């Protein structure tokens, strides 16, 4: 607590798709072990290091255990503000890593082996709360940022834009956002699937289910330590004089960076792509400045986009953050893959004070 802590950055390399294999794309990304990955292609030969690298054969469980996600859940229960976000090119496997297969619903659940970081974290959170025997109150909120508008994915009715405010005590926050209490795995997974189905997606040349918005699901964890031996005559409210803890566990599924030339986007899709790329550029700019030593930092422009405003605490404040960089190994995606790897490498130098 209070010590400088580096952002933990892990890399996931998805398999070549059937379309890429049929087209004859070459695999240009190779895992070297010990958190190192090499990009080998014409005029490009570079090595990058991360906290962990998960190649095409890595299971969803291996990513959960090897990324440090379990520890992040435990820290959130202990009262820390914890964030995990997946970023990378469109179609690189971000949503699959966080959620698992897209074709899942309350009536058609995914195979347990294919569940992503979110469902596995929910299971871990509920198991931890039961084993600790502490009084935990759990609730969740879910929003998307679409064309620089913040929309609630859990509130009934058509999504409407919500205002983003700032206060000295809370920092940036979304006004009138719905928060729903839950106490079981079924309830929180139902909220996740309900919100995800309302999220804006479209098909283009690189991805049949391209996310057109950034989505943030936040689990709020409130706890109170209860002493084993309350004072004689004291009521329940006096059982534990220890202060309550309030932690958060936020999952951020960033829309993928994309080149309009590659995706074939036009009209509304092109407008969405430009909005996505502008907010990702603002995020990259903030990360580049945060990666400098504290003495050399200039003003961090969090206000350049609503995404960076909402992630300000996670990136440069008092939170603990895990970044999952997702890339394609295909030679056709080389430019975007290198961009993601450089982006992730800069992020490794960012520090916060939890």
UniProtKB/TrEMBL annotation:
Positions of ATP binding: 88-95
Pfam families reported in the protein's UniProt record: Kinesin (PF00225)
Origin: domain of life: Eukaryota
Cellular localisation: Cytoplasm, Cytoskeleton
Location, primary (coarse class): cytoplasm
Entry keyword set: ATP-binding, Cytoplasm, Cytoskeleton, Microtubule, Motor protein, Nucleotide-binding
InterPro entries the record matches: Kinesin-like_fam (IPR027640), Kinesin_motor_CS (IPR019821), Kinesin_motor_dom (IPR001752), Kinesin_motor_dom_sf (IPR036961), P-loop_NTPase (IPR027417)
GO MF annotation: an example: ATP binding
Keyword Cytoplasm part of the UniProt annotation: yes
DNA-binding among keywords: no
Signal peptide start-end: none
Entry's Gene Ontology cellular component terms: microtubule; microtubule associated complex
Chain ranges of the Kinesin motor domain: 6-350
SMART domains linked to this entry: KISc
Similarity comment: family membership: Belongs to the TRAFAC class myosin-kinesin ATPase superfamily. Kinesin family.
Name the record gives this protein: Kinesin-like protein
Gene name in the database record: Kif12
